[in-house]
Every structure is written in C-alpha cells, then in structure tokens.
Amino acid sequence: MKKLLSIFAVLAFAFSANAGTLDDVKNRGFLKCGVTTGLIGFAAPDDAGNWAGFDVDVCRAVAAAIFGDSSKVEFTTTTGKSRFPTLASGEIDMLARNTTWTLSRDVNLGFEFVGVNYYDGQGFMIPSALGVDDATGLDGATVCIQTGTTTELNLADFFRANGIGYEALPIETNDEARENLFAGRCDVYTTDASGLSATRAQADDPDKWVVLPNIISKEPLGPLVRHGDHQWGDVVRWSLNTMIIAEELGVSSSNVDDSKGSNVPEVLRLLGVEGGYGEMLELSNDFAYNIIKQVGNYSESFDRNIGPDTPLGIGRNLNALWTDGGILYAPPFR
Amino acid sequence: MENNSNFETRKPPVATTGILGWCRQHLFSNWINSFITLLVIYFLYQLIPWFLDWSVFSADFWTNYKGELIVDRTFCSRVADPEGDHGACWAIIIVRFYQFMYGFYPSEQVWRVNLTYFLLVVALLPLLIEKIPGRKHLIKFTIAFPIVAFILLYGGFGFQIIPTNKWGGLLVTLVLGVFGIAIAFPLGILLALGRRSQLPVISMFCTLFIEFIRGVPLITLLFFGMVMLPLFLPEGLNLDGLVRVLVAVTLFQAAYMAEVIRGGLQAIPRGQYEAAQSVGLSYWQMNRKIILPQAIRISIPSIVNTSIGLFKDTTLVIIIGLLDLLGIGRGALADATWMGLSNEVYVFVALVFFIFTFSMSRYSLYLEKKLKTGINMGAD
Amino acid sequence: MQNNLFQDQKFRGILYQTLVVGFFALGLYFVINTTAYNLEKRNIATGFGFLNNPAGFDISFSPFLDFKSTDTHLKVYFVGVLNTLLVSFCGCIAATILGFIVGIIRLSSNWLLSRIAYIYVEFTRNTPLLLQIILWYAILIQLPRIKQAPQIWETFYISNRGLFGPKPIFLDGSNIVILSLVLGFIISFFIARWAKKRQDTTGQQFPTFTTNLSIIVFLPLVVFFIMGSPITLEYPVLKGFNFKGGAVIRPEFIAMFLALSIYTAAFISETVRSGILSVTKGQREASGALGLKKNWIMRLIIIPQALRVIVPPLTSQYLNLTKNSSLGIAVGYADLVHGFGGISLNQTGQAIECMAITMATYLLISLTISFFMNIYNRSIQFKEK
C-alpha cells in the first residue's frame, strides 16, 4: 500500500508541475528549445557540439530574456515529422525550426505562432548546366523533396496548375535530399528559398547551381509554442520583437551600453531604464538589454548567420525593415 | 611369388597428412575444386591488397599526403587531390571521435560515462564467468547495475543532471541495448509463464500481446512511442524522448525473449513439475527454484541471439531523430565540413557494431557447446 | 472460512483473472479518456473520414497503380501495401535461393570456398540491416549520372536513377499468346503428374524436365509468330531530363532488394546448413551404397529430409524480411510505412488512425505468411503410415 501511495505521489507531482511554462523554465534553470537536425546558417552544431544559427538565436534571445544568460538553453533536434509531437508533448518549451505558419497548424494542431522571424517562399534549385531559367521548363524532371512539409503539397499544386509532369522523390531529411541532388539522383531540389541558399552554399562549386526566380508559395517562418499558455507566448513573442525593435531604433550589441543614456524615450523604455515593461511579462526590466547585449539585434543575427558575408549570402529583401522596403514590422514597445 | 604379375602394382597413397596433404584434400580434391580454389585465390589477391591499401597504407589519419593536419574535408588527400591514388580519410572519425563515443555529453562530466562502462564490465563478469570468486555478491551488483548506471549517466544524488538530448553516439546505442535487454528479461519471463499459465484469461492476454508485438515491425512501435504515446498520457506527464523509445524497444524485446524462454520451458520434462508439486512447492516457488533455472539455462544461447538482434535494431532510432552511433555518423556527413566521406563513416560504424555483435555471437556459440557436452547441467 | 477460500486453487484462479481483466479495463478506460481529452484539447480531428480526402502530394514509385496528387489517402495506402509486398516478395525469393546456395557452399569440401561463405555470413549477420540498406543506396547513388549512363546494346542503361530496359507493349491478339503460355504450364503440370505416377508404378522414367521446358517455351513462341508478333518492345530513349518509355527499376528499390535479400540469406544459409547437417550420415552412406550420384543424393535424399528442419525457421525469416521492408523510409522507398504511415500521417496529423491501420496491415500480412507456410510445413513433414 505504501508503494501504491508513493506512485500516486509521483504522479501527482508530475501533474502539478504543469503550472505554467514560464515558471517551469525558471524553476528548471534552462530553456528547452527544439531545432532542426542541422541546417547550415539556421541551426547546426559545430565540431565541439555548440549550436549556432539564425533560429538558434531566437532560442538564445528567450534564454537571455528569462535568465539574463543566453547560454542557458538545451537544444533538442527534431525532424520534419517529430517536431510537432515533440512540442505538443511538452518535451520542449518552444520550437524554432523554420516552420511555416499556416492556419491548420495554428488552429488544428493546437499551437500558437508568436511571430515571424523570416519571410520565405518555396523555390527551385537546379544545376546551371541544365540551362533552364524558369520552373515551367521542368517538364519530366525528377524532383527531390523533404517529406512531412507544406512544400510537398505546394509542389504538386504548382506542377498540376501548369499542366506539366514530374517525378517526386520524397526524402526524410534535408541532408539526404542534398546528397541525392549533388549525386544527380534528381534534377531539382525544392524547399524554402533560404534552405536552397544553404544547400547551394554547401556545394563544392556553388556557381554550378542556380536558384530559379519562381517563388511558388508564401512561407512565413517563425517560432511557435503550445496553444493556451498566453503568458509564455508573450515572453517568446516579445523576445523576438525586441530584436526587431532594436534594429529599428539602431540599438546593437556594441552600442547598447551607451544607449542607456540616450534621449529617445522608446530606447529608454526598451532597455528598462524607464517604465516597468519587463515586470509585465514577469521578467526583469532589463530583459531586452540582455537580449541585445548577448544575442544582438535582428540585423546582427541575420548578418552573422545567413547574411551576404556568410556562405549562404542571403540578401534582406522581404526581411528588410518596413522603413527599408521590406515587411519586417514590430508593434511598438510601450 | 609366381602370381605376382597378376596383380597391378599400386602406387603408394598420396599424402593425407602434412600441409601438402591437407591442401590436396581440402583445396584440390578434383579439377572443379582446383578451379574454384584458383578463382577464389585470384579474387582475394585482387581484393585484399586493394582494401588494405584503401583502409591503411594509402589512407589519411591525422595528416594528409602533404603532411598538413586535417581539419575539414578539403584537407583530405582524396578530396584535395582527386587524381592521385589516395585511400580513406579517417580524420573525420578522429576529429569527431568524442561525438561518436559520447554525443554531446559535457566533456568535464564524461568520466561518469567511462565509469559506467567499467561498471558494466564488472556487472557482466558473474554472468560470463561462472567460477568467479564471490559470484553471489557480484550478482547482487549486477541486479542493481541499471539503477547505478541511470544515476551515474543522468544525474541526481549530487551529480549534475545531464539531459538525455545531450547523450549520443555509442552511449545511446549501448544504453538502448543494455537497458532494453535488462528490463526485457524479467518481463519476458513473466510473459512466457503467463502464456503457459493454466488460467485462460491470463494466457490469452499474454499470447495476444506477444503475437501482436511480433507481428509488427519495430519501426511502427518506435513511431508509436514517439507520436502516439504523448497522446495517451495525461497532460503534464511528459516522458523523456529516450525513455519513450526505450519503452518501445523493451516491449519489443520482451515479446521475443518470452518466446525463447517459452521454448526453454517446454523442454523441461513434466516429471520436474510433478516432483516439485509433490514436495508441496507453490506455483512461484516451483518456478523460481526448479523450473526457471533449468529453462533459462537451456535458452541462454537463444536469448543472446535475440539480444544481438536488438542491439543491431537500435540503429532504427535514427529514423525518429535520435542520434545513436549511426545517427552521429550521418550528422557528421550532414555537416558541410565533412560531407561526402560516407564510405569512411559507414565502414567505421559497421566495424564497431561487428566487434560487439560478433563477440556476443561467439559467446553464445561457446555456451551452446558447453550445454551440449552437459558439463554444467547440474545445479549451481 | 475465508482462509480456506483463498487456499482454494480454483477461487484464486478466478480472483487473479478478474483482477487482471479489471486492471486492464481500468487502464484502457484511463487511456481512452485521456486520449479523447488530449485530442479534443489539441483540436486534432478523429475518425477515418480523411481516407477519402485527396492526398495532395505525389508518389512516383507506384508500379501497379497510377497515382496522382488528386487521388485519396486510401489510394496512398494501397500503393504502400503493394510496394511493401513487392519488395518483400522479391526479397524472399532471392534470399531463399542465395541462402540455399550459401548454405550448401558452407558445407563444401573446398576449404577456401566454405571459409568465404562463412565470412560473408558473419559480416552480414553482425552488422545492422539499416546500415546495409544505407550503404547499398550510397553505392548505387555513385553510379553514372543519367546523361552519362552506359548502355548495353542500346537497350539497357545503367544510371543512378535506375536501370532502364525495354518494356513489352501488348497489341491486339497478345492475350492469345499469354493464354497459350498459361496452357503450356497446365499441360506440363499434368505431364509431370502422369510421369510421376508411371515411375511409381512401373519404375520407368520420363524426361519430364526437357519435355515441359520445350512445351512452355515453344508453344507460346509458335502462337506468337502465328498471330503476327502481337507483342513488341518499347525502348527507353533519353529525352529532356529523363529516359522516356521503357521500363525502369529505381535505385531505392534495388537498395532495399539487395540489402534485404543479402541480409536474410545469411540467416537462411545457417538454417539450411544445420538442416543438412541434421540428416544422419547413414542416409548419405546408404544412398551412396545404392549407387546414386552425388548431386542426386543431395536432391532426392538429403534436401527433402532437411526441409523438415529448415521450413519452420525459414517462415520466421520470411516474416522478418517482410517486417524489415519497413526500413524503406531510410532511402525513400515508398512502402506502407513511408507512404501511408509517414507522408499521409504528417499531412493529416491523424497519427492514431494512420499507425493503427499500418500496424493492423502488418499483422494481417504476418498472419497470412504464417498460415501458408504452416500448410506447406504440414505437407512436407514426415508422414507415418
């Protein structure tokens, strides 16, 4: 009987541990974040096993906001198939894994997308030797595609709409698809344009590959959390917004300390000098300062991981600030 | 003497002993055999030097053909100089050796893994060597080993907690293999006894369970553990990813183990049951003291064989995103700094698995021989 | 009184069983309840209605059914089942043939040959199948690209997109040719039966093999020419990105087929070897004394007796191979697990339904194989008269 009681006690403890994600994370002492199994520029471990990348920076920003220490993150690798069950089961607190915001995922799968950190679209990459300059000229081509994604459905729709045939080769992970493309098992690789740039960067001779101009879908990629815990959703949302607002205000990791003496009111609010905005989120008032100091603003993260000076060489385009001709726009910090 | 001319003088028999005789008997007994032998020798002559050359003599280890230290794939001789005659580039294994062995386990805590490996060997000793001194006490340690190993690897009791998503490589392979087998063994015994039980409901439940598990592929059970189990559990009760996989692997192994042990139970003559019952032993006493020791002894070789199967099947976890030995290998190939060196990675992984499984199968053969000669059929 | 009741074996049996059923029902109730709650809360749709929804994605490897993205998930299921059965069937046949050959070679008097067979068996048995599948695929991917595909007689092409060859095109009158082929098989069956009966009663032998072979080959051939060659071949031609026309075997299939059959053959060869060894030496010596030739001893005396030992483990090898074919997901072979249990599951999110259907299908396949192998096993067992 004693044994039985203790089992119940353990179960009861497990139930009560579900108070709120933010409290759980604070008690645990680190954040659990789901990322890809490896997509260069967005999330990949180096030889020493440290994770870095554009999606990884979102996780680090949230950790900096909560703990004031961007290193307090544990990364869990997820595949296209395992990402949603992993988040739903509570094994991770948030997912930052180039995941497209769609209605069915937001509503039907029971998640909440807290924002967009990268505006993407599905494109095609082919060897330049094929001499094709438009995707409608791909009649009869073999197409490598990662399964379990929206790209699979977009691809079928695109070819159907244009009345051309193709041969699909569905593959589990991005790495295998890339190997197949480089070996010539398929003519075309299709995924989000950012993923294509990453793949192209890994080729022995990137000039031998071209990304076709056709963009066949809207793919807003962003971090997501479980539906229902609005407090936690707010923390992740405003960690991401902080990075964007910091770029708007010209605050970066190098000038953040000087900016504390700025005379722009919004900068002072952002850095916690004025107002108690951090406390509203149940964070410390300098949470945004910690994010900017340790991770940097949006443009720093972009340039460091995927920008023009990296092997990926992706331009800002859609992801430029709304003031610079892009559509990146964060609600005001007040 | 005069009849001598009626007999043909026979030639002396060709040698049947010595090296020449052996060759004649086993390699050149007739012209077909001789032809086959020469053909095989020719192929071996082509293959073995080529393989040795690829894997050892022309291969890169730490440095390439120019003597530079290899830090990424572009330094590998066979990548840097594709026209030249270069072999494997083992640097990918050497540079990532830590990951292959421990995954992302923090290096300052890695002594805990090594200590666990050492204790595993100690725990195995009383199982492998029957005449070891102090076997009775060692067995107690063997039974406690899974708990000790869990605390050492995961943490708690003063140890820093290392979450399972940092585990990887050979560590995950061994954890799945060893824990899977260790938990499945008692479970398998219960299932086997249940299936042979006189009570129809219990026997039916056990039979259904065993046949269900044996009828579906392991990969579907792994998907079950990964995708479906979270839906079955109440909110807030999260099982660790590795634990969920371990549940699937253990159930799978228990069903196979049960069938093997059932075979052993069937081989026990009825007289043993009757004798045990006639001295007034209860059902559990009878099984624990009389039947199971004999049945398990008979089925040990088959138990080892199914364990080998399980050990190999742990590679399936890469399909659901866990990084075991093969998974770490594929991860290295996915990294732009090392991609394209798949032959090296796969040969290495195959070799590691071969060392483990081959020694296990040798051990099972040795047990089989020992059982056949009946030296150790008596009680302990 | 109560004490006595507990000591009553019958009562205890009923008590235990009631407890087990009770716990099971309780557990089931608990799981169903929490699952229903979880599904409700996460807004996951339930039921099998999704089977009739259009899949929305394409599957290219579908040799038996024509599949388009507008087809339903139910059709994805059938494509997957057929692909699973295809690779399992081909794998079982190849593994059996290779396994028997290797098993006999293992017992060869040629030391070197039997050693080679031994090394093959140990290496394939002691490395994970998944690794072997991936390795085979990695090798096949290194074959020449499609534009440089080497050709054999301008008919067969070898490339990393598969082996291309001619495809038969059936014109008017071709069904008569096929009918004559079937007829040839039926006739040979009856000849074989008649010949065996005659040998049993009179001892006279009849050249059954040569007669039947010529019937099966020449009858359809004659009809073929009489009907004016109604079957022609369509050759693959390189056009645009790929070969057009002809038949093709994809590398995903080849990798699965090679890995499954070579892996399973190693296990089969061991059962064949122990089966042959189980036939006592006396049998061999007795047939030798009767003057039977060496290969006749093998065919008429040893193998039939060895089969009794071989068939039960052979059954479980066939079951293993079929279940192992689910690893096609690792190389993108569109089998049941990859197609229906993978892509459909992902696109619909209905994990429970998809996994349940997939598991039930494998159970059904396993039971069917066991059923037929048991019938075969009974037919070859020793019949005491």
What is the gist of this entry?
The complex is a heterotrimer of chains A (334), B (380) and C (385). Chain A has 334 residues and is α/β, with parallel strands linked by helices.
Draw up the topology in text.
The complex is a heterotrimer of chains A (334), B (380) and C (385).
Chain A (H helix, E strand, L loop, with lengths): L1 H15 L4 H8 L2 E6 L7 E2 L5 E2 L1 H14 L5 E6 L4 H6 L5 E2 L7 H6 L2 E3 L4 E3 L1 E6 L13 E6 L3 H12 L4 E6 L2 H10 L4 E5 H10 L6 E3 L7 E3 L2 E3 L3 H19 L7 H4 L5 H6 L6 H4 L6 H8 L3 H8 L29
Parallel strand pairs in A: 1-4, 1-5, 9-10, 9-11
Antiparallel strand pairs in A: 2-3, 6-14, 7-13, 8-11, 8-12
Helix pairs in contact in A: 3-9, 3-13, 9-13
Chain B lengths: L17 H9 L4 H27 L19 H4 L10 H5 L1 H6 L8 H18 L6 H20 L15 H26 L4 H16 L2 H15 L8 H26 L3 H9 L4 H31 L11 H10 L7 H32 L7
Helix pairs in contact in B: 6-7, 8-9, 8-11, 9-11, 10-11, 11-13, 12-13, 13-15, 14-15
Chain C lengths: L1 H6 L1 H33 L31 H34 L4 H15 L3 H13 L9 E2 L3 E4 L2 E4 L1 E4 L3 H29 L5 H19 L4 E4 L2 E3 L2 E3 L2 E3 L1 H28 L2 H9 L4 H31 L11 H13 L2 H30 L5
Antiparallel strand pairs in C: 1-2, 2-3, 3-8, 4-5, 6-7
Please give the largest β-sheet of chain B.
Answer: none
Give the H and E element order of chain B: HHHHHHHHHHHHHHH
Rg of Cα set of chain B: 28 Å
Strand content of chain B: under 5%
Provide the CATH architecture of the domain at 73-133 and 257-380 in chain C.
Orthogonal Bundle
Question: Low-confidence segments of chain C, ≥5 residues, pLDDT <50?
Answer: none
- The structure class of chain C reads alpha+beta
Number of helices of chain C: 12
What percent of residues of chain B adopt helix (DSSP H or I)? 55-70%
Which features does this protein show?
heterotrimer; A: alpha/beta; D-Maltodextrin-Binding Protein, domain 2; five-stranded mixed beta sheet; 14 helices; globular; disordered N terminus; C: 385 residues; alpha+beta; MetI-like fold
Give a written overview of the molecule.
The complex is a heterotrimer of chains A (334), B (380) and C (385). By secondary structure, chain A is of the alpha/beta class. Chain A has helices spanning 2-16, 21-28, 54-67, 83-88, 103-108, 150-161, 174-183, 193-202, 230-248, 256-259, 265-270, 277-280, 287-294, 298-305, and strands spanning 31-36, 44-45, 51-52, 73-78, 94-95, 111-113, 118-120, 122-127, 141-146, 166-171, 188-192, 209-211, 219-221, 224-226. In chain A, the strands form 5 sheets. Chain A has a 5-stranded mixed sheet with strand order 10-9-11-8-12, with helices on both faces. The longest helix of chain A is centred in the last third of the chain and has 19 residues, at 230-248. Mean pLDDT of chain A is 85; it is low at 1-18. In chain B, helix 11 packs across helix 13 (283-313). Chain C is an alpha+beta fold. Among the domains of chain C are: 2-43; 73-133 and 257-380, MetI-like fold (Orthogonal Bundle), CATH 1.10.3720.10. Helix content of chain C is 68%, strand content 7%. Chain C has 12 helices and 8 strands. Chain C has helices at 2-7, 9-41, 73-106, 111-125, 129-141, 174-202, 208-226, 251-278, 281-289, 294-324, 336-348, 351-380; strands spanning 151-152, 156-159, 162-165, 167-170, 231-234, 237-239, 242-244, 247-249. In chain C, the strands form 3 sheets. A 4-stranded antiparallel sheet of chain C has the order 1-2-3-8. Chain C has a two-stranded antiparallel sheet with strand order 4-5. Chain C has a two-stranded antiparallel sheet with strand order 6-7. Chain C is globular and about 75 Å long. The model of chain C has no long low-confidence stretch (mean pLDDT 84). At the B-C interface, helix 2, helix 9, helix 10, helix 13 and helix 15 of B face helix 2, helix 4, helix 5, helix 10 and helix 11 of C.
